[in-house]
Structures are given as structure tokens and as C-alpha cells.
Amino acid sequence: SYLAKCCFPYLTSTDPACKIEVPERLTVSHETLVRTGLADRCVSVPVREATDAEILLAHSEEYLEAVKKTPYMSLEDLMEFTRQYGDVYFHPNIYHCAKLAAGAALQLVDSVMTGKVRNGMALVRPPGHHSMRSAANGFCVFNNVAIAAQYAKQKYGVQRVLIVDWDIHHGQGVQYCFEDDPSVLYFSWHRYEHQKFWPHLRDSDYDIVGKEKGAGFNINVPWNKVGMENGDYLSVFCHVLLPVAYEFCPDLVLVCAGFDSAIGDPEGEMCATPDVFAHLTHLLMNLAGGKLCAVLEGGYNLTSLVQSVCQTVQTLLGDPVPRPASLKSPCISALESLQCVRSAHKAYWSAIMISCLVNTVCALLSCLHDIILIPGSQICSGLALVPDVTKAMTSIVQHVTTVLSNRYNNLDLIKSYTFCSF
């Protein structure tokens, strides 16, 4: 495993929101990794600044040139410069630190892609996933993970990159960067509350699936209630992300590792315990031959942040994952979001389509108590030797529907099950 670390001073602002994005987020996390002996088990490589050419992989030249001027601005000018963007605050040192944050992510990609390490985590500030091509946003100056994805594609010829964003805020900067790019699959779950939660974007909803050739490669899972727990997170991973991810078959996995989705965070207001991130990490490590790079994003409760970082690093090091704590069935709101996402993406991913078809078959088979009287051969007789699994499953659904309608003469009931399941 690999550990990169960089930080910057307090930001310039009297806004209370600024006080949650503090240097202690990084220093306390790193100190805990050292104290627990986890840092000693990692390969620690000095960070470097990202070059202009690397930053321009995800940002416009005009924006880069504007940020370059910030070290020479007075505090008054910095405040004025800040006002043109949303929820971001500038310090005279921020340009230097933002280059280090992006550079740390690139160093991690280099280490993983060259085989020096199998996986790793970069502890960086400022975060990056809200930053857009020509705008800072949400504490983010340069989009560290978006730059890293483009860099991996350009330098190492990576064909397919999976970006998993488990931060509690939607990473709209990453989405906009890759929304028409089928070589990058972007998955984000985020507090949404029907667009009432920041960043209040219609583009954060489940039916925003990407554009043109990138249609289907953008997966948004909106949390429309607070208080989501471990079972809610794991159900979305198992029933949405993982089936699609295995079908996508990435060469590299990048994680926007925001821990404001953990219990106790003032931004997220969720109830998932830190140990769930060990399980999420472990599930992702089976993809891309284990090539996984996690880059810190949010996380504003220092207690849950530190615990979540440690759980993630321990798992990357190969330690056994703990038994899931307080594992319950997903709540109704989570299930609604999950089903909406699956419905929006079934046209793009056979894994989801097949799952929907299987659910339909199960619904058909369970809709009447004595359906077990239908001989298995009768169902099988409706199948030809179809090489396409989706077509085969469709044949099953059609045949079972026919059998049921002939036997029970209640086609309206059967159709209602079919349409609900699809």
C-alpha cells in the first residue's frame, strides 16, 4: 500500500462553512495512521506538484491562469476572486497546495500502474471532485481524481477507468468531465433529498446517465433521506455498482474517498459506521486486478473520518475486514433509489437487464400459490438455444407469461407483475 500526504493552511474566509474544511482533517488522520502502526506498513512516497500540462487534462487554460495569480493577490482581492465561484475559499498558498494534491494523486497512479505497489490512498487537501473545467467549487480547486483518470489513460494507455465516489456530496465536476466518455464509468451516491441538498443540481438525479457515447456510463444514486445505514450502502454496491463494474471490466479503479458519508458527519447526517468502508474497499479490490487508488475528498467529523481512513487503509493492506456492524435490510427510501437507478440503466447494462428479468420470472412464479404445478419441462420448452443470455431470459419471461395466462386466464394480473418488475 502507498500513502501520500499534503496539506495547506486555513482558508481565507469568515464563513462558518469554511471552518469544517480544516488542516486537522489531514494531520489527525495521518497521526492516527502513524500511532496505530499502519503508516509503517505503507510505502510512503514524497508528493510532487502537478504540472500545467497535467492540470490541463481536466481544466481550461483560462481557469488555470486565473488560479495562478492567487498567490500574488491581497486578501481583499482573494475575497473578490472567491465570490465568482460557489462555496470555495482561497488562501495565498492554495495554488501551491492544490498542485500538490493533484500531484499526489498522480504519484499514486504511477506507483500502482508501474507495479511498485498494488493499491494505495492519497491523503490530500484541497479535495477535488466538485471542481469543474473552468470553475472552483465546494472547497475544490483542481479535480484531483479527474486529472488522475485522464493521466492514466494518456500515460499508461488505460482503456477503462472506474471512478467510485462515496462522498456524501455529488461530484458534479467528475460527472461533467466524463459525461460523454465511455472509457470512464462514474458512480456516485450522494445526499440529494429531491434536489434540496447541496449542490442542488437536477444533474445529480438518477436519470442523468451520461450523454452521447457516454450514455449509461454515469450512475447517480440519490439519497432522498438522511440516516442511511450500512445495509443501504452495501445493497447499492451489490445490486447496482458491482454488477455494472464487472461488466465494464475496468483496468483501474479510482475512489473519491469522502468520509462525510459516515456516521456523525455534520454534512452527511448518515448513520453508516466506519467499518462499512472496509467492506466497500474490499469489494472494489476484486476489480482491475486489485489496481485501486483512493484519494481523500470530504469528511468533517474528525472521529469518524480518522476511523474510516484507518479502516480503508487496513483493508488496502490486506487485513481481514471486520464483521459488518448493525447490518439491517435497506430502508424503503434506499430501495426506491436503487430501483430507479436500475430502471434508468437497464437499457445500457445486460447485468442489470438480466437481473430485472430474473426478478420478473420470480414475480411471475410467485404470483399464484399453485404455480409449482407447472412442470419444469413446460417452461424449458419455451427456450431455444439462444446464445444471447438476455434474449434467453426474455424467452423465459414470455413463455412463463403464456403458461400462466393459459392456465389461469388472468393476463391483467400477470402483466402488472411483469411491468412492475421491469
Account of the protein in words:
Strands 2-1-3-8-7-4-5-6 form an eight-stranded parallel beta sheet, sandwiched between helices. Helix content is 43%, strand content 10%. It starts with a strand and ends with a helix. Helix 7 links the parallel strand 4 and strand 5. It has 422 residues and is α/β, with parallel strands linked by helices. It contains 15 helices and eight strands. The protein has two domains: 2-337, Histone deacetylase domain (Arginase, Chain A, 3-Layer(aba) Sandwich); 349-421, no CATH class. GO terms for molecular function: deacetylase activity; hydrolase activity. Pfam families: Hist_deacetyl. This is Histone deacetylase domain-containing protein.
Question: Quick summary of this structure?
Answer:
By secondary structure, this protein is α/β, with parallel strands linked by helices.
Task: Name its key features.
8 strands; single chain; alpha/beta; 422 residues; eight-stranded parallel β-sheet; disordered C terminus; Arginase, Chain A
- Distance between the first and last residues' Cα: 42 Å
CATH superfamily of the largest domain: Histone deacetylase domain
What is the CATH fold-level name of the largest domain? Arginase, Chain A
Order of SSEs: EHEHHHHEHEHEEHEHEHHHHHH
